[in-house]
## 1
Amino acid sequence: MLSLQKWDQDDPYEFDGEYCVIREGYGHLINALASGLDIRLNYKVDSVDYRDGKSIRITTSKGNFDADAVIVTLPLGVLKQNSVQFLPSLPTDKQNAIAKLGFGLLNKLILFFPKAFWKTDSDYVGYTSQTRGEFYLFINMMRVVGAPVLVIMIAGQAAHTVEGLSGEEVVSKALGVLKTIYGNVVPNPTRAVITRWGSDPFTLGSFSYLSVGSTGDDYDVLARPVHERIFFAGEATIRHHPSTVSGAYMSGVRAAYELAKSCAYREAHNTRPSPVVASPYDHTKAQNITRVSSPTSNANSEDEPVDISGL
């Protein structure tokens, strides 16, 4: 349940300017940022063990990795599910922040048509559905990709409901709405793709929000490093820009800076490691940083192609 008192706490920090769409998709941006890095895909992370104070052991489905420091970018939904075990458990205040923050769901249905039947000079078409959140916004992609494509938004409980339907059922319901708006001029799509973020075990939702009982402080707590060796990034760790791609990116830059600063301090002071249980700060000398990615949703897993031959 959304907090009426705090839901808009980040509004004063919104960026100026118009929204934009990356024509090639976010994958193009991610690939550019990842260029030259050693990134292991499809390594399912099971645990992060930082008990001995000397190194951190990451246990994965394809073997173990030892590192002096790690950056955790697990989605809030995965943290809530405790899919990855932390040894010892994360600090109580961080566990409380994870529990209090809400994690919402927004799915998209992308329909490709043989021709446009809508006004292509408008970016959006809104629709008041009888079912709240169901196919409430149609985004015209014609001016972006140069093709007759509509991206249809599904939010709230409706987003959960469609995850229990087949792709064909979702497409059929969306076409019914379009025909209500435009009449029988609506052709069958040539292709359809649907996201199911809530069912994906590596996301379990789409974005964080302030639920009743939570405040912006919870974002700060979630962002706080643990023993100066476990750092956190992601859209749920940036108080002023949560629930956004830009916020997620900035949080990653922040976590990288924090890690580099911590490593530099330990290098300069040539400090020796101490057991995690003995001190809130562990000044081990961090040299190795292993980048291990769980099989998070990518173009092949997050988007489900829909068989529309029976329409």
## 2
Amino acid sequence: MSQKRKKALIIDDNKANRFVLEVVLKRLGFQTTTQKDGLAVVDTLKESFYDLVLLDISMPVLMGDELCAQIKKAISKDKLGVIFAYTAHALPADKEQFMAVGFDDLLIKPINLAALREKLQKFNLIV
């Protein structure tokens, strides 16, 4: 019996970043969906469960930390997968701020495959 593929939602205003994450996550066995901004993300998450949400912090329309707070407010915990922030902001104070708004973990750009695998394993999203 085949195992159901996990679903990942990638939100980033940068097309190249979306593409890279999409390729990497597909290779790791995920079914992916991408969005270029946060405007429709809450609706998307209400319509379908995603095991993983990768959310860029610095976006022009709606910043990732603001969007994460909206997601956490609008969607119950049992209907929401893991949310990772990814950003170039790597200071400890930045991580504390991101975790405080509800992110489950943080990835630093450029995304390192080993770090991504480690975080996915930590949350039992891959073996």
## 3
Amino acid sequence: MTDQTQAKPQPAAVRWRAVRSALTVRGNEPGLIARIIMLACQSGRRGTGRGAARVPGTWALLGTPVDALPDLGDVQVIIRTPFAGHAPNLVEDQVTFPLSTAMLGVARAAKVRGYSMFGDSFVYVLFEDGTDPYWPVPE
């Protein structure tokens, strides 16, 4: 048989001294976070330390402004031109190509893409980064 020794649980005072010495930096008194951790270790009840740590976290979470739907895409304008009953090559020649070339001269336009399909023309104008999203919108 092998002789296995089990680690004895340390008394609370020994753990408290170890935590306090670990959290004290260069002889200074511990800061707010260190005091919360020490309170959690020193407390006889388990929930006190967790509750003390949750209060600042909840306060920070509720005080942080959050945009519900952040706009992460490029600033773009989509121009749809219906040209009912005409073939895609005719839509390309008479609508999409002239409109695309005219949109190349728009200020701050980074890319212009044109798509033609049966009876419809779509021209996508993508603007440079940093362009105000409401700048290209006509009034």
